Amino acid sequence: MLSSQLPALQVVIPLVAAPICVFFRNPRIAWLIALIASSLTFMVSIGLFLQVQQLGVISYEMGNWSPPWGIEYRVDNVNAYILLIVSSIGALVTAYAYPSLKREIDTNRHYLFWTSYLLCLTGLLGVTITGDAFNIFVFLEISSLSTYVLIALGKSRLALYAAFRYLILGTIGATFIVIGIGLLYLMTGTLNLYDLASRLGDMDLAQPQLAALAFLTVGISLKLALFPLHLWLPNAYAFAPSVATSFLAATATKVAVYLLLRFAYDVFGKSQIFSELPLGEVLLVLSIVAMFVASTVAIYQDDVKRMFAYSSVAQIGYITLGASFASQTALTASIVHLFNHAITKGAIFLLLGIVAFQIGQPTFTKIKGLGKKMPWTSFGMVLCGLSLIGVPGTAGFISKWYLILAVLERGWWWLAAMILASSLLAILYIWRFVETAYFVTDAEDNTIELGSKIPFSMATVTVLFVLACLFFGFHTEFSVDSASEAARVLLEYTRQ
Amino acid sequence: MDLFDNINYWIAMFQIVMGLFIVIASENLIKTLVGLGIFQSAVYIIYISPAKIFGGTAPIFVSNQEVYANPLPHVLILTAIVVGVATIALGLALVVRIYEAYGTLEEDKIQDIDLGANNDA
Amino acid sequence: MRDYDRLLRVVSKAMIPFIVVFALYVQFHGDFGPGGGFQAGVILAAGLIFYSLIYGLENTKKLIPPRVVEVLTATGVSLYIFVGMIGIYRGSDFLDYSVLAQDAVHGQHYGIFLIELGVGITVFAVMVIIFYMFVGRRRES
Prior knowledge:
The complex is a heterotrimer of chains A (496), B (121) and C (141).
Chain A: H1 6-24, H2 27-55, E1 58-61, E2 72-75, H3 77-104, H4 110-129, H5 133-152, H6 158-188, H7 193-202, H8 207-224, H9 233-239, H10 242-267, H11 273-276, H12 279-299, H13 304-324, H14 328-359, H15 370-373, H16 375-389, H17 395-409, H18 413-439, H19 456-474, H20 477-494
Antiparallel strand pairs in A: 1-2
Chain B: H1 2-5, H2 7-25, H3 29-51, H4 71-102, H5 107-120
Chain C: H1 6-29, H2 37-55, H3 57-63, H4 66-89, H5 104-140
Helix pairs in contact in C: 1-2, 2-3, 2-5, 4-5
């Protein structure tokens, strides 16, 4: 009986847990509740993933109202994979969080953090699982509003300003999305994504359809921090509490990418629109610019967290590059990079969380000689850095390999060369970290004083993440196979 | 008159442009939020306009009534309004905190102080 | 007890009960007519804010302490989810009202009533919390 309820439970469990944290207020109890809820959510997503493998598409009718009138939760290979990524990272980051939060946030505010965290998780999972266009907007706003709170809980006052900037840009993005959805609703009279796709396919191309796609694309691009719309991201990631940064960097933009894939391939998949609107070409150009410009800017940052935030913008470029042309290999590359980048960036920000736990906000002046003082942490950073560059034997290599294969399928040698060249830029900024941590030895600047031992929970989770970066570089059965299955499903939607 | 047939949409478009302009052009954080509010309310008009049916009533069954309006857009916009209120409230709460931390609401001044803080670090 | 307040006090004492009753009317009328939890919560909160404008924030906080309001926000949401979970417990889908009572019509009635109650409580509490936050700020700093 319960197995048929999994789609609802996926969203409801964290949603139940969020108000319970407010009832208790105690920091430790709130953390425990969040841990239990996020672990349960993780299990549910595993269950859903297995169910989809066996049975194919799962459709769940909210409140027993049959679609397209009621809200439908629809799980296929694509979003089952994304759900798994989001909820696994949600659970692991929660397990890591307690000591780090204790250092960074007032204990009497912890329950607020956990309430927002669980609501954010609810929102992200909801966006991914729902099959209703307006429901997407509502869940998106739930996750965004709680994200603003999570960022504003950061220690420095810069966090407040970063959260405000994100609030303005995020709201503009969400409003664009809701305008797009409104136009689609006016044309078709339905909000169910599946129904929308088939009705748009039957329809002649009309002006509002173009406008709807334009609004949706710009709105979603703001949320996923596609290159010229990324301005909110670096400061938000740099000044949020370490735990929040790790969680958001690994999940929030990924869910937005999923939305882009869902709208471009599923909802508009059968429509004539792409003969009129060069969405793929635009995405391609912007992705390339993102890869180069963001990586270059990353090299010049003083703050290590900010540097990796810019690197996130660049990495999103690789993901959207794969999404920009509709071939099996390219989509596989894009989706597998969602996964690989999530674990790599998650690992990096968790490691930086440990550094922050010991020495405070990590800037390049502060981390001189880090390699000697915190050898394991620095070594982990190097491994993750290699994965970010895409060195063989790491997770990052797999996604770049598929991306280059996809580009070569088209015969675009120049693009393959550009992907390699942008990886060189990644080497530069990773090298800057390595140089500062290992080779700068002047003693007078060396102010690192280790406060205490690294807590067990933080160390364990971080090691898990770093090992995952290596593991998925060798054993690609899970990550690549599920991704290529997801890509196949997406391409099936576009077939006439 | 063709122009007046679509007057709602003209107003909505005007509001979108005006709201975005205020968001972009104003340096004051509160004015930015006001612009955001105007921008969001344009969406309400876009949704509500087509849902209004002249002579139609609320979709509650009454025997002498034959025309009913579609309730769905109204309900959607109720939700959107609530989301909008939450956003503005959160934005204002942040503004209050920013004012306490920086002593100003002007964006350029905050950025000046920011840069100073960055150099110290 | 300054003299010029008297008019306001008398008028508000006469008006606030009507505001509260109107809020309750909108709340309970909501399941078979226009109305519902959102509107009722806001009207009720407006009544409280009106009270606080006349009698001061301190008295209002005595009436409904901020902590209680915070718990109320969570209570409303929990009630909503709880009603949804009953649907799952009774072997149907999440938020299916039809299984709440002996037959579907009664079930729908109970369902929408409880859901709107949850919404009303949360909206009221959130409005009051926002009010407390903004008004209480200046006195602290």
